[in-house]
Amino acid sequence: xxxxxxxxxxxxxxxxxxxxxxxxxxxxxxxxxxxxxxxxxxxxxxxxxxxxxxxxxxxxxxxxxxxxxxxxxxxxxxxxxxxxxxxxxxxxxxxxxxxxxxxxxxxxxxxxxxxxxxxxxxxxxxxxxxxxxxxxxxxxxxxxxxxxxxxxxxxxxxxx
Length: 160
Description:
Helix content: 40-55%
Strand order of the largest sheet: 1-2
Number of domains: 1
Number of helices: 5
Strand content: 5-15%
Number of strands: 4
C-alpha cells in the first residue's frame, strides 16, 4: 500500500498567496526591505513564508491582497515587530542592527511607511469606492483580476 503525504486543507486563496510568495521570492533580492539583511538562510525552510508581509492589511485593503507591490521581504523578527511591536521596540531593533553591523546598516522603518502611503493612494486610484452612481461599489472578480494583473505586470517589468 502506498504512503501518501498528508497535506493541510488549503483554500484556493491561500494556495494563490503561497504561489505569489514563491514568485516574489524568486524575483526579488532576498534581502529585507527594512534592514537590508540577507534572507538566504530562510530559503527552503518552514520560516520562508514569515519573510513576506503585506504592507497594507489584506483584510482591510482586500483588493490588494494579491498585488506584488503590497508584499515585501523582511526578516521573521522584523515581521513580528511590524505586526505586533511597539515603536520603542522597533527603535531598539534599529540600534541593535547598527551595533551588530558596526553602523554599516540600520533598520529603516520609514521605507515601509512610505510604501504604505504610496499603496493607499494607488488603491484609491484603482479601486475607488464609488463607480458611476454606486456608493461602496463592489468590484467583480474579473474587474479585480484585470486591474491587479496589469499592476503586477508593471511591477515585474520595472524589476527587470
